[in-house]
Amino acid sequence: MKLCQSMVIALCVGAIWGCRATDQELAVPQNGTARMVDTLAAIYRRAQQQPMDYYLLNTLRAAWWQKQLASAGDKASTLHRISYAQELLAAGQTEEAIREIKALLARYQHSAYWQAPETRGLLEMLATAYFRLGEQQNCLAGHADEACILPLRGRAIHRHPEGAQQAITLLTRLVESSPFDFQSRWLLNLAYMALGRYPQEVPQRWRIEGLSIPEATTPLFRNVALSRNAAVVGLAGGVAAEDFNKDGFVDLLVTSYGLNDQVRLLLNNGKGGFIDHTAQAGLIGIVGGLNVVQADYNNDGYVDVLILRGAWLGPAGAIPMSLLRNNGNGTFTDVTYAAGLGTPCPTQTAAFGDFNLDGWIDLFVGCESQGGSVMGLGAAAATAPLDFPCKLYVNNRDGTFTDIASEVGLDVRAWVKGVVWADVNNDGLPDVYLSILGAPNRLFLNRGSSDGRLWRFEDATEQAGVGQPLFSFPVWAFDYNQDGWEDLLAASFDLRYLGEAPAEFALDWLGHPIRSEKPVLYRNNGDGTFTDVTKAAGLDRACFTMSGNYGDLNNDGWPDVYWGTGTPDFRALVPNRLFFGQGEHFVEQTLLSGTGHLQKGHGVAMADFDQDGDLDLYVVLGGAYESDVFPNALFDNEKAASGNWVQLRLEGQRANRAAIGARVRLVVRQPSGSHRVLHATVSSGGSFGASPLMPWIGLGDAVQIDTLVVVWPTPDRRQDVWTHLAVNQTYHLQEGASLKPLK
């Protein structure tokens, strides 16, 4: 196991690293898109010439190793041959990888074949290759929407059994020779399931119970991505769900991690399906990006998009972001350089928030820096510390931004993997919370400005008690218990066990203690401190979370949590996990919901794409290695929601136009005549995946909204109040004006 894990890490370590503006003020050179297209194309050409600096260019890296081995001849080392086989596997040349691994194993003929570390690692690698072959022949070729969703059944059962059958043979020998090999045990159960033979044919000693549901049970959600034209195929990536063309339907902008992977804009056709509008939008050549966030940065009423690039690539990740201005006519223009955002840094996380409450949205970008300790996959490859401080871009109100991070003490140097703005102390000023990989998370309280110019942030991490988990990744602020105070959820991605995610899930499923870090749910105590309530809330589970988001999927008034899980390792066939909120605790619904996809989960967005009165779930799937692509999933909510709802489209006037940071309070009337208070904040949700900037609030069995209060993000915290509103309706709320129901 250790040999195989070291190979996974080694493969990565090679590189891992006011007033409104006038049309004249917002004018930018029309060649902004062309400049970015040329820049990204040049970066890709350079990467092709230096593939060993980019761990995801596996076909070129395999060719490089092949040349090294040919040159060395019989003197080639075993480790170099293993590297070659691993690159073949990552490149999708699986059958060739199998031949190489078998040739390596043929060198060993001793009694401890199944126990010796050097051979056991190769046997694990061979089992992985066969399992991967099964995925390629069944889940990718002739792809069906049901593919790879736990529990595997129906069209998810492999039609071509060779890969899974060979994996079963190898995995059985591995667990028999090492009974505490929970990694192989997990994969063995999945291999049997892939052939329709779980649980009945899994040897009882190795069976993991509880991975299936009764055959007659219909899942709460159904993947409809293929029929809705939303099954974009790619690597890990981000998604922004938003009504970009203002036709009343939620669209999708989707990215993929590959350096030359085309961004996709999918417009909603009004029936829950999508039309690819990428070319018409002027986006051809805008490529790459691991994450994406949205905001109306220029207050023109159309939501713009920021694409984030370079994460995990170390020095090679100094790739520019893309700020895509929504022109309001179905097209976008890349205005990155004209807006002053062209300074490159490796990043996958950013958040828009109006920290100075001037009515113009500002931007925090979390960059990836490293010191002497291993804080990320590529730390060992760096010859010098990576120095990419975080950036706080203040909006200049003229279409441009200025970085003032060093002036206000937010030029943090760390491996920042998530960032969220949230007013955690309810003083009206948005604070910022950073999720850091390999070091304590940090909370900075916004202390305002004494002179209206220089703003001050105070590090309150220790006092607030929110520094965990140590290996933190996606993060968000939400009021999980609906008490009017923003709570914090930071999910873990424990690098120490990067190659052992299946083992951790097996231990978790079997009820054994796990070794890796768990996520942390911090309840806001309302006095500047937080309490870790993860265990009491039922979220102390194995996760290896790479993404996630929240929303009220069952319309009961409590936010639910969905995590995208996995690691770069091909063995990391672990389910994305869904937890339904029930007030102070959560109940897992991964299997019953039909959303437990085994492919690596990345950007997550929740929206009512088909306008049937409940939130659906869009998940970007795929890994980091070149061949680890998969069609994205669109989970249609068919049975989860039974309660009433309301959706709000807020429009600021003195506040920023999209009303990001606005707080909403509802008093709703129950059938008994009693009242219930609900809270929401305008945001896109989690740090990896962006839901619409339109709060969706489940109302349970409430029959009327007696009072709706909006506290706008303005210096005077303006409040607007509306009364006696109908449920199951979308409303347009304009600051200082009337409320209008929408169709």
From TrEMBL:
The keyword Cytoplasm does not apply. InterPro entries: Crtac1 (IPR027039), FG-GAP (IPR013517), Integrin_alpha_N (IPR028994), TPR-like_helical_dom_sf (IPR011990), UnbV_ASPIC (IPR011519). The keyword Signal applies. Residues 659-731 form the ASPIC/UnbV domain. Keywords: Signal. Pfam families: FG-GAP_3, UnbV_ASPIC. This is CRTAC1 family protein. It comes from Rhodothermus marinus (Rhodothermus obamensis).
